[in-house]
Design a protein that fits this description.
This protein starts with 5 loop residues before the first helix and ends with a helix. The longest helix has 37 residues, at 48-84. Helix content is 45%, strand content 20%. It has helices at 6-22, 25-39, 48-84, 90-113, 135-154, 184-188, 276-300, 303-306, 342-346, 351-363; strands at 124-130, 158-166, 172-180, 193-200, 209-220, 235-240, 256-261, 266-270, 318-323, 329-332, 338-339. By secondary structure, the protein is of the alpha+beta class.
Length: 364
């Protein structure tokens, strides 16, 4: 006897119909035709930057349409299996399998619909900085950096370090990295804010429980066609020797770059590339993103959309608590999602917390 029944199929059928609407399937198909026509132009790659944008956009649309068409196919297969159950009980298992796979796929499609912002579908720049707590905060920064990069890599996204600086004796003084993947910025917005750790500190000789903080900033990687009011005459560029471990020549030449935007006081550093030119390009990318965010805040008061509320990196401002002692619990303050499997979370298993946050956000 099937664990699922015809009512489950009817619910799934309604969800597939809704998916065609909220995904705007007809519009996506038309967009894909237009993008493929551009890609077929013999001069398409004469503008490499533009070609990459078009190719990535076409790839994302094609992936969405593939998932939707798979959902339609699973719905049809489930209906056929249901009609054949009376002839052969073996079709009950096939019906169950199709409906369960369909429900999981529809969950993914609905989640994709949450990321409808202009930049949600693109890449992200993530920065982690220690807050109150001294050496303990530096160690916590290192733990968060590891947690976030492992989560990203587990999703098949590409992670590229921009500025990872070891702390004095332990942990990291700061870390920033770029994430390339579908909906990377939209998904990682869940991590923006202050993260609070409670544990017996390995840096405390008396073995006392300590509370420490680190902040996570998530910025969108801006496409080249988005204009930012940036005059390079307003930017002071300093070069210096990289302080962290790196590849050949990274620590033996003045390859690290610090950019200071004089009108706003924004400072950006990058030192993980092998050459000064590469570090300048990476730092400029981060600076453009921060100026873009600042301008949006001034024009439309949409800072919460891009970054979340700016809070002090200390008590009472955290978005998530990680308690390792006297009990073990990770709890998101905003969504209420919690888990006692702290080790898994710190090892990058964040999906439940990330999705829980976005469900809460959409419900608001």
């Amino acid at each position: 006897m099937a664990l699922k029944d015809k009512r489950d199929w009817e619910v799934a059928a309604a969800r597939v119909k809704d998916a065609a609407s909220f995904l705007h399937v007809d519009e996506l198909e038309n967009q894909l035709v237009q993008l493929d026509a551009q890609a077929a132009d013999p001069n398409f790659w004469s503008d490499a930057a533009r070609a990459q944008v078009v190719s990535k956009q076409a790839g994302n649309i094609r992936a969405t349409l593939t998932d939707y068409n798979k959902a339609v196919s699973l719905l049809s297969d489930a209906e056929t299996a249901w009609e054949l159950i009376d002839e052969d009980e073996m079709f009950a298992e096939e019906f169950d399998s199709c409906v369960i796979s369909l429900e999981q796929l529809l969950d993914q499609l609905e989640m994709q619909s949450w990321f409808s912002g202009e930049l949600d579908g693109g890449d992200a720049i993530v920065s982690v900085n220690p807050g109150q707590g001294g050496l303990e905060a530096q160690d916590w920064t290192s733990m968060l950096y590891r947690m976030l990069t492992r989560y990203c890599m587990g999703k098949g996204w590409k992670v590229h370090d921009l500025d990872v600086v070891p702390g004095e004796g332990i942990g990291l003084d700061r870390a920033s990295f770029q994430v390339e993947g579908r909906n990377a910025y939209g998904m990682l917005r869940s991590e923006m804010g202050v993260h609070r750790l409670v544990r017996i500190s390995p840096t405390d000789a008396k073995g006392r429980r300590q509370t420490t903080f680190a902040s996570v900033e998530v910025l969108p990687v801006l496409p080249d066609d988005i204009e930012v009011n940036l005059d390079m005459n307003d930017v002071r560029v300093d070069v210096y020797r990289s302080s962290g471990p790196g590849g050949q020549c990274v620590n033996t030449t003045d390859s690290a770059v610090r950019m200071t935007h004089i009108p706003t006081g924004i400072v950006v550093t990058c030192q993980n590339e092998k050459s000064q030119l590469q570090n300048k390009e990476a730092a400029l990318k981060v600076l453009r993103a921060r100026l873009y965010e600042l301008e949006r805040q001034k024009r439309a008061d949409e800072l919460e959309e891009l970054r979340g509320e700016r809070m002090e990196n200390s008590f009472g401002s955290q978005i998530r608590n990680y308690v390792l002692y006297p009990y073990q619990l990770v709890k998101d303050v905003r969504s209420g999602v919690e888990t006692s499997n702290v080790d898994a979370v710190l090892d990058g298993d964040l999906e439940e917390l990330v999705i829980g946050y976005h469900k809460w956000r959409v419900s608001q």
